[in-house]
Amino acid sequence: MSYTKLELQPLFDKIDELKPAFIERLSKAVAIPSVSGDESLRPKVVDMAHFLVKELTSLGFEDIQVKELGIQPPPVENPKLELPPVVLARLGNDKSKKTVLVYGHYDVQPALKEDGWATDPFTLVHDSVKDILFGRGSTDDKGPVMGWLNVVEAHNELKWELPVNLVCCFEGMEESGSVGLDKLIAQEAEAYFKGVDTVCISDNYWLGTTKPVLTYGLRGCNYYQVSIKGPGADLHSGIFGGIIAEPMTDLIKVLSQLVDGQGRILIPGIAEMIAPLTDKENALYDDIDFSVEELNAASGSKTSLYSEKQDILKHRWRYPSLSVHGIEGAFSGGGAKTVIPSKVIGKFSIRTVPDIESNKLDELVIDFVNKKFAELNSPNVIKAELIHDGAYWVSNPFNDAFTAAAKATEDVWGVKPDFTREGGSIPITVTFEQSLGTDVLLLPMGRGDDGAHSINEKLDVSNYINGCKTLGGYLHYYGRG
Ligand SMILES: [Zn+2]
């Protein structure tokens, strides 16, 4: 223990005491099937927003606002479909305190019993033998959202003042692309969110199942497509094979030159943009609880390109990767169809990392693809383009917010957290950082095996309850630090 411990035991005891009420709160939330991706369930998503308003009101939150985001843009079946609102609330407006914005989402992924769930997905089931809560949204993200409310309830019961001003931003469209949220955050940056000192997002997971983590980085993603067009219609290889230039042959030649079998990107100029690995960052990888066996278990194979955990983690988190995803227009069924596709579109993406400049990357990629195609001397027509991009994010794991969360984690779990990054994206992280000009901390509650988007999603009771303590402890260490 290398820090001055705050006297938080009464808070932790109170959270333990309130465990049944906290499970009850989560069970009411899980019972509302707030699936944002299912238009027919949109009224339930709205019900969930109102459930939150009710809870926030009873806990004493002030200035609760239900921000309507308007009509959902196409593609939609119902052209008049309203987006679910963003719920804003605050507790405390004391100029002498720091202000923490907490973000969470109250919508969930779709779930049907027939998908293979052992229990009804929208009934929170407490397996008392394993001490695990099963239900859609238990870990993603209703557990963490209820966690923030639980922290406030524990303070109210203790008649403790919160150590910070708390601002909540809960959205209902996260599982469907957070439509409308960027605009709202930009609008509120100098209004509702004025004075926010830091942002905490609890919407990710531990790397494994035993050791708590704090997450300080996410890779971005630039997604490209290359279309190659030749004949006016699909042709028969018995008639045209050998006498015309085939788009698929050209496309495969181009795609095959983007990356090698060892995962090395072959496009010149990208490696030079990657931020150098500092000794301090390098040292973070040594302590992380991870092994090649865990990767094998997750991939269901023994196909790892690396055998050392440090190499695996660095290549998942801090180096770029290029994946070829598919070919639109290609024959992909069973059997032996002898078609020559007239137009094929190859799809690939690059997971981006600091300090890759997105525009520069697009230029390097598109120029490279065009150059490789030109070398084929093909009469076909190529078009390479970016179809979607999302920025990477990396924070300073030694800043005040991370330090506060690390102390709280150590108080609660008795171990120092691992500092991790993730290979995927949480685009809202970058939006908050850029719009509010503040740091963002990712403070997960659940474990790596919670099955956030799959069947039998769960949250261990210990993660739920200790997660509440960690969220509360973080507010104290941050607010009083
Ligand atoms: Zn989530």
TrEMBL record:
Annotated binding of Mn(2+) 1, by residue: D140, E175, H453
The record's free-text note on cofactor binding: Binds 2 manganese ions per subunit.
Positions that bind Mn(2+) 2: H105, D140, D203
Keywords, ordered alphabetically: Hydrolase, Manganese, Metal-binding, Metalloprotease, Protease
Residues binding substrate: D203, H236, T338, R351, S425, H453
Active site (UniProt): D107, E174 (proton acceptor)
Site (Important for catalytic activity): H236
A biological process from GO: proteolysis
Gene Ontology molecular functions: metal ion binding; metallodipeptidase activity
CC cofactor: Mn(2+)
Gene3D superfamilies, per the entry: 3.30.70.360, Zn peptidases
InterPro entries: CNDP/DUG1, Cyt/Met_Dipeptidase, Peptidase_M20, Peptidase_M20_dimer
SUPFAM superfamilies xrefs: Zn-dependent exopeptidases
Domain Peptidase M20 dimerisation residues, every copy: 225-375
Family: Belongs to the peptidase M20A family.
Protein name: Cys-Gly metallodipeptidase Dug1p
Upper taxonomic lineage: Eukaryota, Fungi, Dikarya, Ascomycota, Saccharomycotina
